[in-house]
């Protein structure tokens, strides 16, 4: 039987670091800081998912594996999508801005699970859809015994990811369920699944730290090189996996993988309790932080209206407030509303009510 409940400390620490960077990336922070964060923060989550890949998955049938991943990844995608929809309907009614067309578009985008309209209606949940497809692709590829075939298929995915990026810029063509993102993301997942072999080559602690720092320096260098290219050719000036905006594809892969491996080597034996606790709740924090920040801004606007002034939070203050509120909400959900995250808990809740 597969044990998926056992947590790995350094993985939670890196998830904590990752979700902190996600929140910062969604705030009005300095341009170069945002470019650096976006160079690796989402690739790192795919890398970390690969780190906890269980080789015993290969003993499962395709049907059993897909069912397992539907329950672990698509269930929270569904529940949080419903929460998003209800939130958007409620806020539009309160603000007297209800638009039925937008609601229909949000439902379509949720079912299609990709950025297909003028607004990203699925928000950060794109990651869950992409990870679902990535894990299925990796599961199918890993079933080949010949290592050369597995490598060839990964190279094919890289090529298809690059083609999808080009097609998106020319025709705004997006594939369902983030398949276009998954073709690129599977590389980071695969490296994560192989990362433990890297550790076996770097047994000495000092050597591991030094090499980890060298990888981070590589990340900064190639991120800046890619930033210059993107700044000169596109208004966004940074990579963004959601928009298939990679800039120079080689610079993107090198910078992202350098950061993933660098942080992995540096934090492998670390003890950072705060980061670890944040990392344990990273899924809920990721799902809620943008909406909670919006609610905070609405609240400050309301208070400002009462006192006849405008209250604007500095990005650092906004970050602390959003992180704390998101963490508290995540704690409440995990303690009292576990059915939002777990299909098994939902089944138990329904069974309990029937009895």
Quote the distance from N terminus to C terminus. Answer: 29 Å
Q: Describe the biggest sheet?
A: none
Q: Structural class given helices, strands, pairing?
A: mainly alpha
Count all strands and give the number: 0
SS element count, helices: 15
How many domains? The number is 1
Query: What's the overall average pLDDT, rounded?
Result: 87
Radius of gyration: 21 Å
Strand content range: under 5%
Which residues form runs of ≥5 with pLDDT under 50?
none
What is the percent of helical residues?
over 70%
Helix-strand pattern: HHHHHHHHHHHHHHH
Shape: globular
Please, could you describe this protein's structure?
The chain is an all-alpha fold. It has one domain (9-283). The protein has 15 helices and no strands. It has helices spanning 9-25, 31-38, 41-51, 62-94, 100-112, 126-142, 147-171, 179-193, 195-201, 205-233, 249-267, 273-280, 282-307, 315-336, 343-354. The longest helix is centred in the first third of the chain and has 33 residues, at 62-94. It is globular.
Write a brief caption for the model.
The chain is mainly alpha-helical. The protein contains 15 helices and no strands.
């Amino acid at each position: 039987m597969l044990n998926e409940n056992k947590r790995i400390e350094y993985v939670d620490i890196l998830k904590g670091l990752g979700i902190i960077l996600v929140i910062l990336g969604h705030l009005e922070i300095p341009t170069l800081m945002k470019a650096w964060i976006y160079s690796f923060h989402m690739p790192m989550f795919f890398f970390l998912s690969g780190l906890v890949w269980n080789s015993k998955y290969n003993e499962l049938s395709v049907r059993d594996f897909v069912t397992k991943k539907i329950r672990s990844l698509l269930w929270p995608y569904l529940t949080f999508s419903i929460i998003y929809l209800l939130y958007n309907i409620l806020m539009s009614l309160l603000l007297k801005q209800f638009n039925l067309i937008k609601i229909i578009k949000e439902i379509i985008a949720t079912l299609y699970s990709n950025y297909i309209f003028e607004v990203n209606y699925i928000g950060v949940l794109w990651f869950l859809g992409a990870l679902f497809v990535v894990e299925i692709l990796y599961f199918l590829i890993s079933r080949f015994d010949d290592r050369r075939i597995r490598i060839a298929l990964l190279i094919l995915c890289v090529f298809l990811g690059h083609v999808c990026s080009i097609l998106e810029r020319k025709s705004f063509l997006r594939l369902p369920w983030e398949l276009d993102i998954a073709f690129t993301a599977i590389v980071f997942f695969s490296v994560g699944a192989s990362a433990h072999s890297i550790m076996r080559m770097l047994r000495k602690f000092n050597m591991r730290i030094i090499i980890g720092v060298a990888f981070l320096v590589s990340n900064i260098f190639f991120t800046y090189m890619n930033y210059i290219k993107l700044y000169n050719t596109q208004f966004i000036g940074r990579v963004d996996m959601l928009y298939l905006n990679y800039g120079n594809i080689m610079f993107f892969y090198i910078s992202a993988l350098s950061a993933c491996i660098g942080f992995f080597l540096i934090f492998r034996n670390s003890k950072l309790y705060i980061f670890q606790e944040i990392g344990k709740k990273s899924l809920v924090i990721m799902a809620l932080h943008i909406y909670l920040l919006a609610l905070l801004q609405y609240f400050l606007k309301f208070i400002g209206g009462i006192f006849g002034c405008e209250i604007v939070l500095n990005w650092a203050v906004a970050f602390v407030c959003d992180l704390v509120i998101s963490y508290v909400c995540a704690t409440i959900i995990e303690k009292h509303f576990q059915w939002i995250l777990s299909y098994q808990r939902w089944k138990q809740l329904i069974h309990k009510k029937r009895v």
